[in-house]
Amino acid sequence: MGCCFNCLKSDDAEPSFKKPLTEDTNRSPMPQESPKALSPVDLNDFIIEKVLGKGAFGKVFLVTKKDSGQVYAMKSLRKDMIEQRNQKIHTKTERQILGEVNSPFIVQLRFAFQTPEKLYMVMDFINGGELFFHLRRCSKFAEDRTLFYAAEILEALEYLHMQGIIYRDLKPENVLLDSEGHVKLTDFGLSKKFFSGEKKAYSFCGTPEYLAPEILKGIGHDHAVDFWSLGALIYEMLAGAPPFYSRNRDVMFRNMLSKPAEMKSHFSAQAVDLLRSLLQVDPKRRPISTAEIKKQPFFSSIDWEKLKKRSIEAPFKPKLSGIKDLRYFDKIFTDEPTDDSVPPQTLNSVAKAANKYDDFTYAEVQPQFKVD
């Protein structure tokens, strides 16, 4: 989607082995949100046009803001389901991070608001589709295409790590392509922001195929988990499947911890060197930073300054007729009715009053302009 948020995919749309694993053990206090030019918005300010995705907590909609005509993706989350699944900390973290980040390779939050029953996050609509959609269509990518996506993802990770944020859920479903074919990371529900004095996180979370060994072992983890996941994603783009994939999750985890990834015969020597450095079971043997990864021969052809400015032409440009062209979205969602109602009696009046998310409201500082 211009926002196909993976956490909102239905169980039918996503194989069980691709479901995120979460066990919340990080209890860092949420900081007060930075001062913003907050202007009240609510559901009445938007026209809901299409469903883009759905899942256990709610839905993602294509919406148009009435006063400006601007098109967005609106993530709608049911508070009762968040509470039932003990995901309040992760949801607050996602909102906090999205309100702080500003990168050309990350989807931007524009508005956030809530009702007694739901939370809403309104973001840029990125309509080139998920990397997963395109990878499934192509089976695997050529190395030059893989290189381009890996380099832009690396830029996004570098930015996040500089902000003290580990992403923790890098996979094809969470990488979007914009209308020019450039990368945008989305879905920060499993991300972690380190605060003063914190050096490691201990939550058991992620998606099995891309889960770093240190998370699986429960020994504590830091930004190196993103480098493992980057290696798994690059491998999948080149090979068509993740490096240790098995339908049997126990077998997959055992292979991950005990075997080196099998390097395919069509991988270049540069790709093999990069993958072997990233897919090290011991995080201390992986590169220590994005700067070190950038020096790998695999990335030698990249002009990083041009890349940061998105001045390198993408190897694939989505064929789109306009901002509301949804050809890269699954019709199983886009054909659904745009109902955003909550089943009756999900929360009683006392629970609704108590279940308010402090500091959730957000509005972008930039003024909105009328779209012709």
TrEMBL record:
Query: So where does this one cross the membrane?
Result: none
InterPro entries xref list: AGC-kinase_C (IPR000961), Kinase-like_dom_sf (IPR011009), Pkinase_C (IPR017892), Prot_kinase_dom (IPR000719), Protein_kinase_ATP_BS (IPR017441), Ser/Thr_kinase_AS (IPR008271), STKc_AGC (IPR045270)
Pfam families hit by this protein: Pkinase (PF00069), Pkinase_C (PF00433)
The residues covered by the AGC-kinase C-terminal domain are 300-372
Keywords for this protein: ATP-binding, Kinase, Nucleotide-binding, Phosphoprotein, Serine/threonine-protein kinase, Transferase
**Top EC group:** transferase
Q: Where is the Protein kinase domain?
A: 46-299
The organism sits in which domain of life? Eukaryota
Under the heading SMART domains, the entry gives: S_TK_X, S_TKc
**Disordered: annotated segments:** 16-38
GO molecular function list: ATP binding; protein serine/threonine kinase activity
Q: What is its EC number?
A: 2.7.11.1
Q: Which Gene3D superfamilies match?
A: Phosphorylase Kinase, domain 1 (3.30.200.20), Transferase(Phosphotransferase) domain 1 (1.10.510.10)
Where composition is biased (Basic and acidic residues), the residues are 16-26
Q: Which reaction does it catalyse?
A: L-threonyl-[protein] + ATP = O-phospho-L-threonyl-[protein] + ADP + H(+); L-seryl-[protein] + ATP = O-phospho-L-seryl-[protein] + ADP + H(+)
Q: Which family does it belong to?
A: Belongs to the protein kinase superfamily.
Name the UniProt record assigns to this protein: non-specific serine/threonine protein kinase
